[in-house]
Amino acid sequence: MTETTDDALLEGLRKVPGGVWRTYIAPDVKVIYEAINKNACTSLKWMMADLAGEDLSTFRAGAQPFIDDTEAVHHRDLWVQSPKLDRLSAEERATISPEDGWFIFAVIRDPRLRLFSAWQNRILLEIPNSQRWRDEPWFPRHPMTRDTVIEDFATFVFHMENDPEMWLRAKDPHFRDQVEMLAEDVVPYSRIYELSEMADLKQDLHAHLEARGQNQDLYMPRANPTPLPVTAEVFGNGVKEAIERIYAADFERFGHLWDFSKVKMRDPWTPAQAAAGEHESEPGSPHRGPPQDGAVPPQAREHAA
C-alpha cells in the first residue's frame, strides 16, 4: 500500500489535472472519495455531502449550466462543511491513510461502457456546454435514429483514436484515462471498486462507519439516467477494439475486472427509445436545460484549465 508522508498526497494530486478538486472529504467520519467521472460520481458526491454534514437543501443549480438540481453537487463552491484537500494542514494530510483509520475509495468502470455513457450524456443529448462542438465533424446528427447513433458514436471513437490531442480526450475528465485520475502512486486507497461492486462498497463503508459509532443510511440518489441503454450494436465494426486501444492504460491496470463477454447487453433500441433520446436533446428539455448563449470557445477553456 502506498505510504503518504509529509505533503506527498497534496503535491502528487496537484500534478494530476483536477486531482485536488476531485478529492471529497468527510473528516468527522474519516472518509475520502476520489471522484472519477461517469462512474456513479453524482450519486457518490451526494453521499459524501451527506456524510460531511452539508446542508443538502443548499445544492441548487441556479445559473450554472447543469441539467437539473441533482447536478448542483458538482459545484464545489456550494460545499461548506467538507474541506478541500489543500485547506487541510500538512500535518492533517500526513495522517490520511487506512492505517490511521481512514476509508479512502474510488470507483472505476469498463472503459467501453464508460465512453458510451459519457458520449451519450455529454455530447449526444446536447447538454448546454456541448454546443461549442457543434461544427466538429464528429458531432452527432439530429434528429437521431438508431442508425445515426451507431454511426456517429463510431465516428467519435475513431476520431478520438486518430487525434490523441483532441480537447475532450486530453482535458475533459469524462473522457480521460481512469488510471491517470486515480493517482495510485500517492493516494493510499483502502480499495478501488468496480462499478458492479457497489454493494461491496456500501457494505465496507457501513462497517467503517459502525466502527466509529455511526450507524446511518447512505444517501445515494440515482442521477444522470440516459435514455439509450448499452447495446452490442454500438461496439461493432471495430469500435470495441478502438476503445481498447484508446484506453490501453486502463485495461493494463484493471482489465482483469472487465470481461466484455459478461456485459449485459440490451436489445436493439426501439423507435420509442430513439424518440425519447431526441426529445431529451431538444432545447428546454429536462435533460438539456435552458439554451446557453456565448459558449466559451475550447481554446479559452483550455487556457483557463
From TrEMBL:
- Residue segments, region Disordered: 269-305
Name-wise, this protein is: Sulfotransferase family protein
The subcellular location is:
Golgi apparatus membrane
Q: Which UniProt keywords apply?
A: Glycoprotein, Golgi apparatus, Membrane, Transferase, Transmembrane, Transmembrane helix
Q: Does the keyword Transferase apply?
A: yes
Tree of life domain: Bacteria
Main location, first listed in the record: Golgi
Membrane topology annotation: Single-pass type II membrane protein
Q: From what organism does this protein derive?
A: Demequina litorisediminis
One Pfam family, short name please? Sulfotransfer_2
